[in-house]
Amino acid sequence: MKFAILITTKGKENLEKAISSVIGSKLPIYVVTPEKHYKDLEQKYKNIKIINDKKEGKASAINLAIKNIKEDVIIFTDGDVYIKKGSISYITKTFQNKKVGGVTGKVISLNSKDDILGYWSHFLVECANTLRKDLQKKNKYFEMTGYLMAARKNLIDEIPKEALSEDGYISQCIHSKGYNIVYEEKAVVYVKYPTNFKDWIIQKRRSTGGYTQNFIDKEKSNRSFGKETRNGFKNFFKYPKTIKERYYLILLFLSRIYLWMVIFRDIKIKKLPFAKIWKDVKSTK
Length: 285
Prior knowledge:
The protein is an alpha/beta fold. It has a single domain, classed as Spore Coat Polysaccharide Biosynthesis Protein SpsA, Chain A, CATH 3.90.550. 41% of the residues lie in helices and 18% in strands. An 8-stranded mixed beta sheet has the order 3-2-1-4-7-6-8-5. Helix 1 (15-20) links the parallel strand 1 and strand 2.
């Protein structure tokens, strides 16, 4: 079985840091980007291949990359995150089990807990990590994170061009074909989250709103308003250590209600096109 790493980037991220975190794996690395100047990386690193996309969105970029990748398993990550040393080997070992179709890693926020948005990021990734761990113990379905996930290439159907949550769609493809998804806690990815509320809404409208699209099976998905609220409520009494932190979480729950209202308005009522929803989140770069 052969493995490859796929990094998607629009060209504005700290791409070299993302590459440096996986270059030691010695696996083929494919970088899909609309930027032509990254071709220089092919001379700098022998195992890197640049694929230029046409700025038609992440789903289209991934579809193009999949057509160019010959390896059996693709490890997906982004150009604005970086992976902990040794994480790739944990992922590749998991695929020794032939029933495993996908593997997802553990997300850790790089933001400070001292400010409110940073605290939110730590709380939300902890909720997601806890949920994946609990569902895995119960042998139930859960979605992977696009920050660090891997999938057998032959299980991935063509991703709809307008899909906002390609990780959810790929997870669904794997599960629908009878394969298991594994949560590997030792495979860690570090992520910087938005530092202002405007960017927070832009990012969450896209990532969370994608799970309301028709491409996603709502019955199986864990990313609905009700399910997120129940999961968050469970952690409300466990995670915060101070009164200030509880106050932060109350504001988070109110903000999530507002976010879901924005999602319902923009995606369900206004039916905004993909280009209007998929906007750059500048404070994460």
